[in-house]
User: Fold this.
Amino acid sequence: MKMISRLLIVTSCLAGFGVYAGTPDFPHLQTTGYGEVSATPDMAEFTVKVVETTMTAEQAKQTVDKVVTDFLAQLKEQGISDDNVSSSNLYIAPQYHYPKSGQPELVGYRASRTVNVTVNQLSDLNQYLDIALNSGINQVQNVQLKVKEQAKYQDQARQAAIKDANAKAKSLASGFDKEISGVWRIDYNAPNNQPVLMRSMAMDARAESNTYQDSTIVIRDRVDVIYKLD
Assistant:
């Protein structure tokens, strides 16, 4: 018991040292700056899926493969390069009925494949979704709006976050009759900004009109700063 107690004490001391090891031993203040910019999307990615259930595995496979092949062929006719299209391998699984008593009964096979498409011109998005419909695709998993100059907007958001951190620091220092004499530490982790996720929807929901082009993307950033005080 004594050894366990000593181990707990040592562990607690080490944990405490880890918390305070990075704390400066001079007057300071810490702020977090936030920045964001709004951008109009000019491109998109969408993922569609075809799912079919038939009595045999081979029939399910053939049906799904034909839909995907037709869809890819029509996209190629529209001038979409192979680099902007990717499709998954076939997934197939048996389907069972589970009665209240007795053994499960095999009722068919479900096959599925997904296709991801990058649309370089947002105005073409609805057209490509219509092509998916006409090809036999029966699910849209998501539509993601993007901007081609992501790095430019991210830098604008970062600069706004820096200005926000500086403004907060000056206001706080002034409120306590102090002055900022420099920056001691800057902590920054590049944000993982995800494109706008419009919605998941069934393919029978055709009435999307031009809502995609009416959307905006908000790109955010943040920075943590520790300032020296006089």
Residues 53 and 110 are 4 Å apart (CA to CA). The two ends are 50 Å apart (CA to CA). The first helix runs from residue 2 to 20. The first strand starts at residue 28 and ends at 39.
